[in-house]
Amino acid sequence: MKLCSWLIFSLSLAGALAAEETGALLVDKSQSNVSVAVHATGDSFVGKLENYNVTLSTEPNAQRIHSVTFQFLFADLHTGKADRDKEMLHWENATQFPEGVFTLATLEPQGGNRFTAQGHLRLHGVERPLSFPVTIVAEGHHYTVDGEASVDSRDFGLPIIRKFAVLKVDPVVKVKFHLQAAEKS
């Protein structure tokens, strides 16, 4: 019993020390935004992601982000038209695949504040690699992260949307984000 208690205490202490080694950042959602631009024949639009969860952390004693996980529910993406949002959820099969997740693998420096983010995006139950440019500005304990990624819905097993034989939704969407975060105090 003493060995079990000691083991639990040791694992808890190791977890606490590991958390201290990594600087967790808090995203200020009032100053951040995520949008999805969709081009379609005669009806292009931009959807706004109204809610999401981001886990950002930095390397100890360095102003460099090393870990990112971005999670969202498709139901939180709003285009300004309730009928279109409902059709989007049906197309994506959000009852079976409600969530999308991006997990950062690496940030490759490109000079200055520019990087190439490489990671994996999981949508519609399919995970694919995703690479895109980002700009990260670190000022003291505050971080600004801006980027834009092109995502082809066909890569995730989603069909091209067509209506009336002439209207078509481009399967490549542009996800644009601006995140402001600060170190937890």
Characterize the structure shown:
The protein has 185 residues and is an alpha+beta fold. It has one domain: Lipid/polyisoprenoid-binding, YceI-like (Lipocalin, Beta Barrel). Helix content is 17%, strand content 52%. Strands 1-4-5-7-8-9-10-13 form an eight-stranded antiparallel barrel. Strands 11-12 form a two-stranded antiparallel sheet. The N terminus is likely disordered.
Count of discrete domains: 1
Mean pLDDT across the residues is: 87
Count of DSSP helices?
2
Characterize the largest beta sheet: strand count, sense, and whether it forms a barrel: 8 strands, antiparallel, barrel
Indicate the radius of gyration in whole angstroms. 20 Å
| Helical proportion, percent range | 10-25%
Question: Roughly how many Å apart are the termini?
Answer: 37 Å
Sequence of secondary-structure elements:
HEEEEEEHEEEEEEE
Using the coordinates above, name the CATH class.
Answer: Mainly Beta
Total strand count, please?
13
Q: Quick one: overall form?
A: elongated
- Spatial order of the strands in the main sheet? 1-4-5-7-8-9-10-13
Strand content of the residues, in percent? over 45%
**CATH fold call:** Lipocalin
- Which structural class matches the secondary elements? alpha+beta
Contiguous low-pLDDT stretches (5 residues minimum) are 1-21
Please, what is the CATH homologous superfamily? Lipid/polyisoprenoid-binding, YceI-like
CATH architecture group name: Beta Barrel
Notable traits:
disordered N terminus, Lipocalin, eight-stranded antiparallel β-barrel, 185 residues, two-stranded antiparallel ribbon, single chain, alpha+beta, 2 helices
